[in-house]
Write a structure and sequence with these properties.
Elements (H helix, E strand, L loop, with lengths): L11 H48 L4 E9 L2 E5 L2 E4 L5 E3 L3 E4 L4 E6 L4 E4 L4 E8 L9 E14 L2 H5 L4 E4 L3 E5 L3 E6 L3 E8 L1 E6 L17 E4 L4 E6 L6 E4 L6 H8 L5 H7 L4 H9 L62 E5 L10 E2 L1 H4 L4 E5 L4 E5 L13 E15 L2 E15 L4 E10 L3 E12 L3 E5 L3 E7 L5 E9 L3 E11 L1
Parallel strand pairs: 9-10, 18-19
Antiparallel strand pairs: 1-4, 1-6, 2-3, 2-5, 5-8, 6-7, 7-9, 8-9, 9-12, 10-11, 11-14, 12-13, 13-16, 14-15, 16-17, 18-21, 20-21, 22-23, 22-29, 23-24, 24-25, 25-26, 26-27, 27-28, 28-29
Length: 506
């Protein structure tokens, strides 16, 4: 059988060369084997060291990037699937989740002097916080607000590297330009207002990933300070929209939400129709049940009873009992009606009762009869105003002082919600300087006497606005300056006070 494959025969000289080469190869292998083993061992040690370093880095806690500077109520830090109660001074690391219960309120001061305030019933993740004081332009910051309300005041990192700052919500990406802003978010809606600077909001898309940093450009909308507008994105909407802060959603939408039990949680989050009202969410997100508790009426103590003289036949002079002195209380004793308020220029309505109705507010249908909406609060109160000539206040009013007509106030703490006595107050509107000042005298056995004081601005259209970290006022004045009303709220150490008021010009 013939083999068709090429066949080569070696010559004697070539065989000798192969023998020589084989000897050299054996010698080389003998010499190189120890070196190879040595190198192999060295590489193995290096690999083991690298593995050990990697393993150690996984289990080594991340650097501290923030510290809790304020805690009110109950709040927790979640880290590595473990939860710990937040206390003043608690350290915050990258990867931590800040979770607040109803009534919980947390301030976190970060290493670059940024401040993030996490409000009640909220969840915020510190996804990334890279800050180099020597090179702040290389910083990278990312938060994720999955639900609730948070306020972010930019530090050096966001100011120096604004293209590498991101606040994510379930449906929107928010970038900044050196900013103080407030975000309210849930799975279906994101709303934001700006106290200072500018934000850029955009929906997630193929061009806007939640994994990225900085603002997105596609379908993005900007919002700047002093615009009296709110930036809103709803699920399914192609892009955010700017809405008037003093008008907000159409009433039909609000009423539909109040009648839909499945939407009640969303309504509690997004029912803030003014910048001030949204800022109210900073300190109070969950809806407050306004169950009216009968106000205790205190009587002045009578003087000492006359000395008893049982063993004397002398009949003492009859004692005329003193008339008990009832302390002043501007809380209504009976519910207002549509008929009794028909001529009133300002009327409170409420779209979400969450219990027994407020005595100082009407149903929406009754309150809005012949009136227009001005402001609303997260607890469901809406102030309506008679606007025969539109939302314009008469000029030349100067300084107007008001007397308190009626008010409701509540104290909300871990022990529940109780009605407070409203003993009096004062309100002064300066239309020249566009400023207001007010005081309310409140009282309850659980709190003692409390003087709520506030100084804020009068915006175009006669709207009363105050936004502070733990204090809020939002209201409006009648277009002729004859009446005023406002919603108020203040966070205390052990709870919060909130309520509504009506005033008449002196």
């Amino acid at each position: 059988m013939t083999n068709s494959s090429p066949h080569y025969i070696a010559s004697p000289r070539s065989a000798q060369r192969r023998q020589g080469c084989g000897w050299l190869r054996r010698l080389g292998l003998a010499l190189l084997t120890p070196l190879a083993l040595s190198l192999s061992l060295s590489f193995s040690l290096i690999a083991l060291q690298a593995t050990a370093q990697t393993t150690n880095s996984i289990h080594t806690p991340t650097a501290v990037v923030g510290e809790v500077s304020l805690i009110l109520g109950r709040a927790y830090l979640e880290r590595d699937n473990e939860r710990e109660r937040i206390e003043a001074g608690s350290k915050v690391h990258v990867g931590d989740r800040v979770f607040t219960e109803a009534g919980g309120h947390v301030h976190v001061r970060f290493v670059d002097d940024a401040l993030v305030s996490v409000r009640p019933s909220s969840t915020l993740d510190v996804v990334r916080y890279d800050y180099d004081a020597a090179k702040p332009e290389n910083s990278a910051v990312k938060f994720e607000l999955s639900e609730g309300v948070a306020r972010a005041i930019s530090g050096d990192a966001a100011k120096s590297a604004r293209q590498r700052f991101r606040m994510n919500t379930p449906i929107a990406a928010i970038g900044v330009r050196g900013t103080d802003f407030v975000v309210s978010a849930n799975s279906r809606s994101t709303r934001a207002l700006v106290n200072e600077g500018t934000i850029i909001m955009a929906p997630y898309s193929s061009e806007c990933s939640s994994d990225a940093l900085g603002p997105c450009a596609v379908d993005a909308v900007e919002l700047s300070q002093n615009t009296l507008q709110v930036l809103e994105l709803g699920s399914g909407n192609p892009a955010p929209r700017l809405i008037a802060a003093t008008a907000g959603r159409e009433l039909g939408e609000v009423e539909d939400a109040s009648n839909n039990e499945s939407n009640s949680a969303e309504a509690q989050v997004v029912s803030t129709e003014s910048p001030d009202a949204l800022d109210t969410n900073e300190v109070y997100l969950e809806s407050v049940a306004t169950t009216k508790i009968n106000t205790e009426v205190a009587a002045a103590e009578s003087g000492p009873a006359p000395d008893e003289q049982p063993n004397t036949p002398v009949v003492p002079d009859p004692v005329v009992p003193e008339t008990p002195v009832v302390l002043a209380d501007f809380t209504p004793t009976s519910a207002l009606t549509a008929e009794s308020t028909r001529a009133d220029q300002l009327v409170w309505g409420r779209w979400s009762s969450n219990g027994s109705p407020s005595l100082l507010s009407l149903s929406l249908s009754d309150a809005r009869e012949g009136r227009d909406v001005t402001i609303s609060s997260p607890s469901g109160f809406i102030l309506y105003r008679n606007e025969p000539n539109g939302a314009r206040v008469e000029s030349g009013l100067g300084v107007v002082k008001f007397d308190l007509s009626a008010a409701e106030a509540f104290y909300d703490s871990a022990n529940g919600i109780v009605a407070m006595r409203v003993a009096g107050g004062n309100l002064e509107l300066d239309f020249v300087d566009r400023a207001f000042a007010t005081e309310l005298n409140l009282d309850h056995a659980a709190t003692g006497a409390i003087d709520f004081t506030a100084n804020g601005a009068i915006a175009d259209g006669g709207y009363l606005l105050l936004r502070e970290d733990a204090k809020t006022v939002s209201g409006a004045v009648a277009t002729d300056g004859s009446a005023a009303g406002y919603f108020f709220e203040e966070q205390l150490e052990a709870g919060r006070i909130q309520g509504i008021t009506l005033w008449g010009a002196q």
